[in-house]
Amino acid sequence: MTATTWALPNRNQRILRHFLFALLVFGAWEIGGRLTNPILLPPFSSVVVAFVEILLDGSLIEAMAESLRLLFIGFGIAAVVAFVMGIAIGRYRSLDQMLSPFINAMYATPDIALVPLILVWFGFGLPGRIVVVFLAAFFAILYNVYAGVKDAPRDLIEVSRSFGVRSELGILRAVVLPSAVPFIMAGLRLGIGRAVVGMAIAEVFLRLGGIGGLIMGYGAVFRTDFLIASIISLPLLGIALTKIFARIEHRFEYWRTV
Q1: Domain coordinates in residue numbering, the chain
Q2: Which terminal residue of the chain has fewer beta carbons within 10 Å of its beta carbon, N or C?
């Protein structure tokens, strides 16, 4: 029996287990919602109806478009800055020793604790929200780029130098970056998930727009079914974007042999 033949039953079993678990969770949710106050816990069916309603009336799509604009601007800036800094501190020990304590301190500081300070410095507008998304995604990308650069095989670096590659730029292009590609892609995958969290924080605390605006609006009038429906769009967005980056990362798997 071939590996493909074995893989199909295993895949079907995984799908069946996922389906049964989802049926158990959502079934318990439906029953619990019908036995309790719907303001506290609306039935799952009511949440599905609310989700379809805000999807069809365009409010979810409009909010999602605004949120994605914020997400991609903040994530894009974070990816560029983290990529450059990760290479710099990974390749130069003096920079590593100088900056690492400050980077570790910032990483240990919760993003939510910085929101009042960001509000004072950047205001309620787009710049302040971009900073929140930037901080949420930056460190996940930075640490992975840094790890990939530090993990570059020294024997290959020496071989490339013996073949006449002397400049730092040449070493980066020939050895360091190709070997770091899997780390970089993993950092981007983790960073986009963190950026979605930062996006929600920015919209809820700095400006009532996008998905955060929907969440706060429905929460203020105790429309719990619509509130949960709005919240659900965030993990769905995070899962979709993470899966896209995981697919891209998988295409670079062969670089691990470098």
Answers
A1: 1-35, 43-257
A2: N
At residue 76, the pLDDT reads 94
CB 184 within 8 A of CB 147: no
Q: Under CATH, which architecture does the 43-257 domain have? A: Orthogonal Bundle (1.10)
Q: Which of 246, 136, 96 is nearest to 182 (CA)?
A: 246
97-150 pLDDT, tens digit each: 888 888 888 888 877 788 888 888 887 778 888 999 999 999 999 999 988 888
User: How far apart (Å, rounded) are the C-alpha atoms in residues 118 and 69?
Assistant: 19
Query: With contact defined as beta carbons under 8 Å apart, do 212 and 231 qualify?
Result: no
pLDDT at position 161 is 63
DSSP type of residue 172: I
Rounded to whole angstroms, how far apart are CA atoms 176 and 186?
16
CA distances in angstroms from 160 to 148, 155, 178, listed in the order given: 18, 9, 13
Q: What is the pTM of this model?
A: 0.80
Residue 6, pLDDT score? 47
Q: Which pLDDT score is estimated for 84?
A: 92
Rounded to an integer, what distance in angstroms lies between the CA atom of residue 51 and that of residue 44? Answer: 11
Q: Report pLDDT for 212.
A: 83
Q: For the chain, which residues score pLDDT lower than 50?
A: 1, 3-8, 257-258
Give the Cα separation of 102 and 253 in Å (integer). Answer: 33
Query: Cβ(238)–Cβ(193) under 8 Å?
Result: yes
223 burial (CB, 10 Å; 0-12 / 13-18 / 19+) is middle
Side-chain-side CA neighbours of 85 within 13 Å: the count stands at 17
Tokens of 170: 């040449």
